[in-house]
From TrEMBL:
<keyword id="KW-0808">Transferase</keyword>
<comment type="function">
    <text>Catalyzes the transfer of endogenously produced octanoic acid from octanoyl-acyl-carrier-protein onto the lipoyl domains of lipoate-dependent enzymes. Lipoyl-ACP can also act as a substrate although octanoyl-ACP is likely to be the physiological substrate.</text>
</comment>
<feature type="active site" description="Acyl-thioester intermediate">
    <location>
        <position position="169"/>
    </location>
</feature>
<keyword id="KW-0963">Cytoplasm</keyword>
<dbReference type="InterPro" id="IPR045864">
    <property type="entry name" value="aa-tRNA-synth_II/BPL/LPL"/>
</dbReference>
<feature type="site" description="Lowers pKa of active site Cys">
    <location>
        <position position="135"/>
    </location>
</feature>
<dbReference type="InterPro" id="IPR000544">
    <property type="entry name" value="Octanoyltransferase"/>
</dbReference>
<feature type="binding site">
    <location>
        <begin position="151"/>
        <end position="153"/>
    </location>
    <ligand>
        <name>substrate</name>
    </ligand>
</feature>
<comment type="similarity">
    <text>Belongs to the LipB family.</text>
</comment>
<dbReference type="InterPro" id="IPR004143">
    <property type="entry name" value="BPL_LPL_catalytic"/>
</dbReference>
<comment type="pathway">
    <text>Protein modification; protein lipoylation via endogenous pathway; protein N(6)-(lipoyl)lysine from octanoyl-[acyl-carrier-protein]: step 1/2.</text>
</comment>
<dbReference type="GO" id="GO:0033819">
    <property type="term" value="F:lipoyl(octanoyl) transferase activity"/>
</dbReference>
<feature type="binding site">
    <location>
        <begin position="71"/>
        <end position="78"/>
    </location>
    <ligand>
        <name>substrate</name>
    </ligand>
</feature>
<feature type="domain" description="BPL/LPL catalytic">
    <location>
        <begin position="32"/>
        <end position="207"/>
    </location>
</feature>
<protein>
    <recommendedName>
        <fullName>Octanoyltransferase</fullName>
        <ecNumber>2.3.1.181</ecNumber>
    </recommendedName>
</protein>
<feature type="binding site">
    <location>
        <begin position="138"/>
        <end position="140"/>
    </location>
    <ligand>
        <name>substrate</name>
    </ligand>
</feature>
<keyword id="KW-0012">Acyltransferase</keyword>
Amino acid sequence: MQTQTLHIRHLGRQDYESIWHAMQEYTDNRNSDSQDQLWIVEHNPVFTQGQAGKAEHILNPGDIPVIQVDRGGQVTYHGPGQLVLYPLIDIKRSKLGVRQLVNHIEQSIVDMLNQYDIAAYAKADAPGVYINERKVASLGLRIRKGCSFHGLALNVDMDLAPFQRINPCGYAGLEMVQCKALGGPQTVTEAGDKLVQTLSKILGYQDLVHHQGLKE
């Protein structure tokens, strides 16, 4: 059955803008038979500002570009050493509500970190995943034509300093933390392997098909 298979696309390290436009294009051209996909990527340094983003949350971007994008949420940072997962899912076909999809994504991160005895949790009023009031993963989605794009960013082994140039996700003084320092996954690859397992399981996919790049 179509919806039981999830196609995993391993994209390596890519500029943000090209992947964002590829997500838009895939979503715009989908039909009822299109594959559900999960894109795994690391981005070159970039700040992204959500649709309702307020300029005052960008404090001092410096030499890092700021891109206005079509997801929910405020400003965040992407850079090497951060795992980014983009679920391109027909949520209407999968009978998922938007809030339910957000909850599933957050729970998959919590479940993955629990495997490392890390007590992570989500918050009802602030999307993402937290550990001792410090944020380890950010989340922002867009739904178009009943299908999701954009997704989650999990800090694994990265330079966290650029987060000090913004109010992360619109919260002044919010401290960011990462997996490696907490005894969690030590590399983006390790985190990606584990998170694909927990996310695909919680979303109910039975078969995973792996691809290298967008075209394969």
